[in-house]
Structure prediction request, 534 residues.
Amino acid sequence: MIALLRQRLRRDRVQLLLWILGTAALAASAVAGVSQSYGGPQDRAALLATVMANPVILMFRGLPSGDGEAQVALFLILPFLAMLAAFMSTFLAVRHTRAEEEQGRAELVSATPAARVAPLAATIVHGAAANIVLGLIVALVYIGSGYAAAGSMISGLAVAATGLCFLGLALLAAQLMRTSRGANALTVWVLIGTYVIAGFGNALGTPSSDLTRMRSSWLTWLSPFGWAENTRPFDEDAAWPALLCLAAGVVSTAVAFAIQSVRDLGAGVVPERHGRTWAPATLSSPVGLVWRLTRGSVLGWAIGGLLTGLLATSLASVINEVGTKVPSVQKIFDALSKNGSLDQGMVVIFYIIVGVLAACAAVQTVCRARQEEAHGTAEPVLASAVDRVRWLGGYLAIGVLAVVLIVAAAIAGSAVGAARSDWSLVKDAAVAGAGQAVAACVFLVLTALIFVLIPRATIAAGWTIVLLALLISLFGPLFSLPDWLTSLSPFAQTPTVVKSGIDLKGLWWLLLAAAVGLGAALGLMRRRELHPAS
Prediction:
């Protein structure tokens, strides 16, 4: 097992370094952002009062635990640190288990004295070590910033425990699903679902009388992210909720070991579906083939868009209800409403998430082209009458279709939600959705350019630019980042509805970037050679 562990460490040294340093940089940015933008107690108290007035913010932040500088910093950043740890652990677990079986390398290892258990054990040790290092570095970042040592260690524990929880869940998903794509998709959907559940639990919680703390509802306790947030670093410093994450990870890992010992190599618990005897006529074209390969993931993203759009308009009644129950929150409502509609702001916030879902679907479609090329299955298609431009064009066409379907599903969900709140919000949703669709297309063509120019970097770079753009759009205004930096995110340049009409912002620049990128990707693809996996 030692040899396998050394091989994993050598193989992942660059990826893990980027994950850990990136997470540490995000943790440090919260310290700098809060000290610069909310350095005074009154500023932090006003921020938390605004948060209590708008429960939607709680769906995308943490759990308020006081107005101290360290407490506010962790409220703003802890869920995102935990999410990065969860993503790192998910991809690590699947890459060294199910993906190894797909590539045939696990069979070679099983034929040695290492047998079948050693690779799984090495992956567990590898993933656990990565999360422990990540947790320690996060703690050291906060200790080095002058925060209390106890709260800093609890912060690191919460992040590491969340990562270990999803390490176990991903190992279990790798046993259940037959492909690495299916295992990653299953774990990521669990991750997104539990993150949303924790956000709902916080949004439906009870604020304190001074509007500096929030007691989460029971719903939060159904999520690993809720467990991490309820450690309340720099307030209660409670370690026991993090133990729930560790317990969930241990149980999932034990089940994965049990399944590994009885299943056939290469098989999964979820049975493979049998294909048709005769291929449908749609598979006679590149576009039809791409749709067949990606329709399942597009459907999943569209369901996410539908639910997000539904929440964007239906939660207006929740905000009004909170304001009615808590007089101090009602005063905040009255103050905020002078500067614009809270409902419109809520739609804009939710449709940033819709844009992220659409961008993820677009990036995943282009990444599928890279996977087909790396696995050698693109070569038989290109050996036929289909040329390279037409082949890539099929993926880009389905990418655009995926974006349109996800945004349309979100707008339909908003229409359903508006039927019980305010029907005029459908217009706001349509404007925001159309703008986010253009932004998602920008990510589509950027990933396509990377695929054409640097094919081996397609998957890593494609997902990285989406993550960076999301972080800039979410944290830019909050941390008072320079306008030029915030404007780099396409999500922040989409049109919105204001009192005087529609603010187009950078719509024309987004359209120009999408058009130029599309032409460049297709033009450069004409002379590009195939780059299979080395």
